[in-house]
Write a structure and sequence with these properties.
It contains 3 helices and 2 strands, in the order αβαβα. By secondary structure, it is mostly helical.
Length: 119
Amino acid sequence: MDSFKTLEQLIHFTGMRHGVLTSNIANADTPNYKAKDMNFTQALDAELDLKTTGPGHIGNSVEGSQGQISAEASASWEDGNNVEVDMEVAKMTENAMLFQTAVSLLETKIRMFKTALRR
């Protein structure tokens, strides 16, 4: 597994998810709009392509495609909209933390390679 590629995919995924979440907030007052989200676990499982080689191993649980955007099934307001701005802001905060963690890990890996090359 190439950790650089995995971190790159994670950074790409968080960027895409940020767009989906901001779209939800922008449409908070749009009648019949359904909030959308991206499933990080499915995207990561697809990226890692986990294999089961023994009966006790946990396998890849991917059922959809990587980075698939899906509507959230939650109760709607009277106008048919189901966006809860507080929840979307919380998801954006979580997503931003995930992005920052991936960038920090990538910076650390690059720094390690630079150090190894200087020796």
